[in-house]
Amino acid sequence: MDRIEFEEIIKAQDDLIHALDVNVWIGMEPTFTRRFAETPEWLSEALGPEKLQFAYALLNELHQRQPGGVVLHTLGRQYASEDLPRWNIGYYQARYNQFSWDGPPDPSLIKKSQDSTLNKSINIEAFWQALNNALNRTSWESSAFVVNGGLPFRILFRRDGTPVTVDINSKTQLARPSVHGQQIPLTGLTDELSANDDFLLCLGTLSAD
């Protein structure tokens, strides 16, 4: 893309915004706000229930217009005064339709959509067992186990051929909760298991609610 083509694209976007009579507010970084809202989440707070609803509404609109992408819920920012990392929802799609996601849909898409293709039966336990079997067919060592709480189906594997030891009493990190539900230390996240060449996969399903 050369400079002339880029400028033409930007001008087309500006013309479209002008034609739609849309006001775009820009803060310290590109930010979507509700112009007439007076609640803290739209004025000063980073998060809020209504803001999350709008985020999911935008996600569903994007999915309807551009299907085939994958939804990822990753860790957002967290500052020292905050108890949890902020939610961060991404919708990723390959350019030029090189790849189309055909795996289990995100629960929020199932909840909002009338598309029957999204209501696939998800057998997470079968996937967990199949993944463990596939790992054991390689030169890696793998062991599947279950814990109480969220993301119960887990797999511990090593890539160096050393036998895998699943002992939650001696390796309490094997039962750790998701990093989404705990405060990130100021020094950053560390993984005691991977530092010892133990790699943990945590699988589970989320409710559409």
Keywords for this structure?
209 residues, alpha+beta, 2 domains, three-stranded antiparallel sheet, two-stranded antiparallel ribbon, 6 helices, 30% helix, globular
Percent strand: 5-15%
Low-pLDDT stretches: none
Question: What oligomeric arrangement do these chains adopt?
Answer: single chain
Q: Summarize the helix and strand pattern as letters.
A: HHHEEHHEEHE
The tally of helices reads: 6
Cross-sheet strand order for the largest sheet: 3-4-5
Gap between N and C termini: 43 Å
What global shape is seen?
globular
Give the integer mean of the pLDDT values.
85
Q: What does the main sheet amount to?
A: 3 strands, antiparallel
Class computed from helices, strands and strand pairing: alpha+beta
Rg calculated over all Cα atoms: 22 Å
Summarize the amount of helix as a percent range: 25-40%
Number of strands: 5
Query: How many domains, in number, for the residues?
Result: 2
Question: How does this structure look, described?
Answer:
The chain is an alpha+beta fold and 209 residues long. The chain is built from six helices and five strands, in the order H-H-H-E-E-H-H-E-E-H-E. It folds into two domains: 3-118, no CATH class; 124-203, no CATH class. A three-stranded antiparallel beta sheet has the order 3-4-5, with helices on one face. A two-stranded antiparallel sheet has the order 1-2.
Layout of secondary structure:
Layout: H1 3-20, H2 40-43, H3 49-65, E1 70-75, E2 87-92, H4 107-112, H5 124-136, E3 141-146, E4 153-158, H6 192-195, E5 199-203
Antiparallel strand pairs: 1-2, 3-4, 4-5
